[in-house]
Amino acid sequence: MGTINRFFVWWKETFKKQGIVGKVVLGCSSLFVIFCLCSVPIVILNQKTPATSTTKVATTPLAAQITETPTEVLPPTNTPEPTATLEPHAALKAEIERVLGSGNRNVPRLTALNFDDPEKGAIFINWAINDNFSESLIIFGAKSDATDILKALAQSGIDYNYVILSGSFPMVDQFGNSQESNVVNLTFYKATVERIN
Domain coordinates of the chain in residue numbers? Predict the structure, then answer.
């Protein structure tokens, strides 16, 4: 009983220290745990044993199923025209747009994809980072985006020396004006990208 009491005291103290987002997350997590704990006995107590079937299955000899008239033979169908495959650069752009998904800030997620920029063998990719509930969740989302972009690039088979990833997010100046600015700038050499799992 003392362990349960200590748990509730710990939970109460932890709850007091959280901001509004932390309280919502902690509250939702607690409700989920309570739901799971209540569901286990219900599932265990409501298990039904399957009844055995007493329905008779009619069996017919295979010979009775053979028809006397041959079935109609259809002419072969026309093969569909092959679809055009995207060239590698367009395919990479489409894949990056797919992995980034739609944004939540009314700006395109992929804002630039330049090959041989700033020099031959380089790729420059600029994307808009999604907004989120807290700064740490925004950072987590940006890391996830960068990982997804690098995976798409590695699977594309495009030859390059290095890639520059630049993520943008709205920044507010001292006068309250908001402007989209690059806040993440990462450079990865191909050898490094190939070693990432």
Answer: 88-195
Closest CA to 167 of 104, 125, 105: 125
The DSSP symbol for 157 reads T
For the chain, give the mean pLDDT: 83
* 110: three-class secondary structure by DSSP: strand
Angle in degrees, CA 26, 30, 33, rounded to 5: 140
Alpha-carbon gap, residue 127 to 156, rounded angstroms: 18
| pTM (2 d.p.) | 0.58
pLDDT tens by residue, 93-129: 999 999 999 999 999 999 999 999 899 999 999 999 9
Is 3.30.70 the CATH number for 88-195?
Answer: yes
Helix (H) or strand (E) holding 171: strand 162-172
